[in-house]
Amino acid sequence: MDFEFSEEQRLLKESLNGLFAETYNFEQRKKYMKEKGGWSKLVWQKLAEQGLLGLPFAESDGGVGAGAVETMIVMEALGRALVLEPYLPTVVICGGFLRHGGSVAQKAAHVPSIIDGSRTFAFAQLERSSRYDLYDIATSAKKRGNGWVIDGEKLLVINGQNADTLVVTARSKGAQRDKTGVGVFLVPTNANGIGKKTYLTQDGLQAADITFTGVEVSADAAIGDSENGVLLIERVIDEARAALCAEAVGAMDESLKITVEYLKTRTQFGVLIGSFQSLQHRAAEMFVALEQARSMSMFATMATNFVDAASRAQAVAAAKVQIGRSGKVIGQQSIQLHGGIGMTMEARIGHYFKRLTMIESTLGDIGYHIQRVNEIGALV
Predict the structure, then answer these.
(1) Which CA distances in Å does 236 have to 98, 184, 203, 276?
(2) CA 85 to CA 36: how far, in whole Å?
(3) Minimal CA–CA distance to 223: which of 99, 92, 65?
(4) Cα dist. 338→140, 267, 333, 343, 350 in Å?
(5) Dihedral, 325, 326, 330, 332 alpha carbons, nearest 10
(6) What is the rounded CA–CA span in Å between residue 294 and residue 343?
(7) What domains appear along the chain, each with residue ranges and CATH number?
(8) Phi-psi region of 148 (alpha: psi -120 to 50; beta: other; left: phi over 0)
């Protein structure tokens, strides 16, 4: 199988590296974190101007019509630069719901504003008792006249403070853990009855806990089948997991480079610490972990196009397991090799470690995905 990038894909990678080299050094990133919403509107517009926000959308919807490989390239670059902007929630996740389940009218109403950067989205899924279960949903969506009324609470909504529109999973019928009776709804964040509590996550992103109290939305707010949205949710979330794998590879790659450079320049008792064989062995172990993660990220990217949903889910789960393991090896060794300075806010490496730690637990940690691999394998 040919794993070489095409000429267009190589140009995409080069343009991203150039863009972030100009706009996203460590000092600039710290400034962006202090802006409203915790990210730079100027950088977001630059992403829009270069067509990056429209990459996965069909040409008929105003996008580029690119595929999963292009998304992988973008996410690796975002991870390498520790980009704060909400590409994952807006383009990959919420854009994914529109691409795979949205009606012609919904796409026309929302996709152009994603592509031109004028609006951002957030995915509201997690609840107090749900952990990683996509179907454990207590938030309700009840029919009222020609529309819907949404009640409930969602936690840890990334970009929830700044988003213009929320994509919300809610139960239209059935018991809390049923796999049927689940729908996906578009909810404007300025709707009456929405409350927000915002805070910073460990990796510097901004999140919000959001309450819905009698929030009324129109009949066309439902994306796809309002009672059978599980297959749509699973597909989009598997694509998001593959994108997270790619982001982690970018962060791991940069972490290794930073650490190796530190070993080459840091002296102790008049000797370069990189000259010690034991530390060279650690760096070699980090490299092996990175390459294992990279290969599984590619596998997950290809798996998002699998026709069989079970095969796709198993492949992505296996990739998430390896990404989590490699992230721990590289993240922890990076901190160890830097010493105490690695855990300070002034050191870049500590921020990569935090992001890798958060990626491991996002949309399922190592233990959860090991269980998924085993369960799916037993059914196949």
Answers:
(1) 10, 12, 24, 46
(2) 12
(3) 99
(4) 49, 12, 8, 9, 9
(5) 0
(6) 26
(7) 7-119 (1.10.540.10), 122-221 (2.40.110.10), 230-379 (1.20.140.10)
(8) beta
DSSP state of 186: E
For the chain, 380 residues long, give each residue's pLDDT as a single digit of tens: 567 899 999 999 999 999 999 999 999 999 999 999 999 999 999 999 999 999 999 999 999 999 999 999 999 999 999 999 999 999 999 999 999 999 999 999 999 999 999 999 999 999 999 999 999 999 999 999 999 999 999 999 999 999 999 999 999 999 999 999 999 999 999 999 999 999 999 999 999 999 999 999 999 999 999 999 999 999 999 999 999 999 999 999 999 999 999 999 988 888 898 888 999 999 999 999 999 999 999 999 999 999 999 999 999 999 999 999 999 999 999 999 999 888 888 999 999 999 999 999 999 999 999 999 999 987 65
Report how far residue 325's alpha carbon sits from residue 315's, in angstroms, rounded to the nearest whole number.
16
**Cα gap 311→116, rounded to integer Å:** 35
Which tokens sit at 112?
């152009």
Quote the CA–CA distance of 43 and 232 in Å, as a whole number: 31
What are the tokens at 142?
A: 């009840």
Token pair 């940069």: residue: 254
CB-CB contact of 116 with 48 (8 Å): yes
In this prediction the pTM is: 0.96
Token readout for 301 is 């990217």
Residue among 56, 47, 49 nearest 86 (CA): 47
Separation of alpha carbons 301 and 6, rounded Å? 16
CA dist 343 and 339 (Å) reads: 8
Tokens at 159, concatenated:
């970009």
